[in-house]
Amino acid sequence: MKIGILTGGGDCPGLNAVVRGVTKSALRRGWEVIGFRDGYRGLVEKDFLPLHDHDVSGILTRGGTILGTSNTANPFAYTLAPLGSCEKPKDLSRLAFQNFRDLGLDALVAIGGDGTLTMAQQLYKRGMPVVGVPKTIDNDLSATDVTFGFDSALNVATEAVDRVHTTAQSHHRVMIVETMGRYAGWIALRAGIAGGGDIILLPEIPYRAKDIIGAVLERKRRGKKFSIVVVAEGARPGKGKMTVTRMVKGSPDPMRLGGVSYKIAEILDNSSIGLESRVVVLGHVQRGGEPTPFDRWLATGFGVKASELLAKKRFGQMVSFRDYGFTAVSIAEAVGKLRRVQPGAQEVRTALALGVSFGNSRITG
Ligand code: F6P
Hints:
Elements: E1 2-7, H1 15-28, E2 32-36, H2 40-44, E3 48-50, H3 93-102, E4 107-112, H4 114-125, E5 130-134, H5 150-171, E6 173-179, H6 186-194, E7 199-201, H7 209-221, E8 227-232, E9 244-247, E10 255-257, H8 260-269, E11 276-281, H9 293-311, E12 317-322, E13 325-330, H10 331-334, H11 346-353
Parallel strand pairs: 1-2, 1-4, 4-5, 5-12, 6-8, 6-11, 7-8
Antiparallel strand pairs: 2-3, 9-10, 12-13
Bound molecules: 6-O-phosphono-beta-D-fructofuranose (F6P).
């Protein structure tokens, strides 16, 4: 067999571990492997590099992706110059198929989130033998219990929550730490619990200004003259909207969130809590750096499972991690269904039992 690999969408720690896992196990089966540069751009523009054992040696611990990635390159609506343009996206899927054939490929491994996998599914429906590997720091794909990148992001976010504790305590302040996660609150929830946050604000539980203020005052009454708020970038007030920082032209999901923490600071600054507040927006720091051991392990297992699916010609499938085992689900089933925090979930109740506020007094566990 000759296989192509690409990494699409936002990067995250563990992508290289998957590339290594697929490549090493494929080479050991006697297959040939190439990597496309910058996601689907490489497939459309025939930009690739051969992957030999020495190319993937030493990349297990490296963050990002040695292949490069793009969150705008879509073969069905191509916006990248010189072949496409943002004003007039072009359907270049025929060219992608032509390149696939010209290169003598038997299969494509698409490593990415919802957008990349949706495109993989479209290619598969038109006849390309594709296997998917799910990635995202957001951990919001419903067809797998966990995605690699999440644990690494969680470590960064938790360390940030740990670190702001001492400065919050010294200055008697409210420190507000904003995490990524898009429309799901997993990073904020787990970092909030693991880091001992006092108020956790999630997209899934709309907050109420008076309940955030109430939670800080309640702590003050108990002699705690500081509070730590962990807020997911997608958090929003009841009836209110999410905070959008920019729109990215050509992206399958163009809305970029960010900045809600400043709104929370404003709510607190305009209240009578008598404490100053400060904001820390973690942003892309959560996506950078080395993957944690868990993510290296998970990503390696995903990579090896992907080449097993290729060997069995189980195309149109995506690797998944369920009940502590590696398995496969159809990509069609996996895409478009987000896994979000349920307000009644065990871990929400765990936090409530400790006195954590979700900024909404109706959520009582
Ligand atoms: O989906 C991963 C993610 O990091 C989200 O948590 C975040 O909202 C978004 O991507 C940021 O995207 P970009 O890298 O395009 O700014």
